[in-house]
Amino acid sequence: MAILKDFAYTYWNKDLEQHIKTEEEGLIPKLEKFKFSPHYLHMIRRDHDLIRTLIERIGVDGDEHKVYDVLASLVQYHIFFEERVLFPKVKEVLDEQQLLEIENTLSAYRVGNNFQNYPVKFWE
Hints:
This protein is mostly helical and 124 residues long.
């Protein structure tokens, strides 16, 4: 469990926290500006709040493995939602100028996949 705990905190600190910040400070305000469906934006914010809560719950109770399972499932769901539902809808609804404005805003944020550099590749 120590490796999972370290990995979860490393992933949060080096990737996931910045990803959420990028969406909340860059993407969501732009989508609100362009009057994008509040339903989708609510779903993004809800996922972010749940992810933060799960990160805070690591090590708090005796069912830590359940927290990891739920966290992994939620992150996977969130990625699926963004890639298969949100982004196609954004491309469908917004015009080229609006998409370019979002792209320019998001380019100021740097989000990587630093978890791939984690020294113990327990998922392989």
